[in-house]
Amino acid sequence: MTTKQTGLASTPLLRATLIAMLAYLPHIALAEPADRDQPVRIKSSTSFTDDRSKTQVYQGNVILTQGTRQILTDKLEVKEDPDGYYQGVATGGAGGLAHFREKQEGRNEYIEGEAERIEFDTRSEKAKLFERAHIKKSDGDVRGRYIERDGYSETFRVTNGPNGTSISGGEQTEVILQPKPKATTKNTNKEPSKP
């Protein structure tokens, strides 16, 4: 059965897909655990659900939120495989980039990212950012044409070529590491009080 919907969609398949998708996307860093228990909200100009192919497509100023997690994009496509895992693609948005933001676990800090295309796969626990890829955290920035985050190994891979390739003589990737704040020490030498 194929349905065309506008506004917020509420089919059981759609709800299950969004909850599973948001439990992972973007999964670039350890997200606030409480986010998984929050309701999923998605706003878009239009949404399309195909129950037979287990596919959902949202278009037009897509705003997806769950707790501290937020995804802003122009188009979001999500597909469920026969084993219940999800693959998704977010494309376009402000400046032609899909954006995400979420609070890091146990800290009052956020991680933000953007790319022309962000792909995720809940089976492999990988997120891939393509073209003009950028991830920003309080302790540094990473830029490249391609960034891959492996959720199992908690590793990043950044390349200067498309699809994880390296181009000799191409524009280089960039990593900026911020220095750790120095610990402050209290001055224990007090001046004598004056009479």
In total, the number of strands is 13
CATH architecture: Sandwich
Reported by name, the CATH topology is lipopolysaccharide transport protein A fold
Total tally of structural domains: 1
Fraction of helical residues: under 10%
User: Main β-sheet: number of strands, strand sense, barrel status?
Assistant: 6 strands, antiparallel, barrel
Secondary-structure element pattern, one letter each: EHEEEEEEEEEEEE
- Kindly provide the radius of gyration, computed on alpha-carbon positions and rounded to a whole number of angstroms: 21 Å
Tell me the distance between the termini.
Answer: 89 Å
General shape:
globular
Strand line-up in the sheet with most strands: 5-6-9-10-8-7
CATH class: Mainly Beta
Mean pLDDT: 77
Separate helix tally: 1
Proportion of beta-strand residues: over 45%
The oligomeric state is single chain
Q: What low-confidence regions span 5 or more consecutive residues with pLDDT below 50? A: 1-10, 13-30
- CATH H-tier superfamily: Lipopolysaccharide (LPS) transport protein A like domain
Structural class by sheet pairing and helices? mainly beta
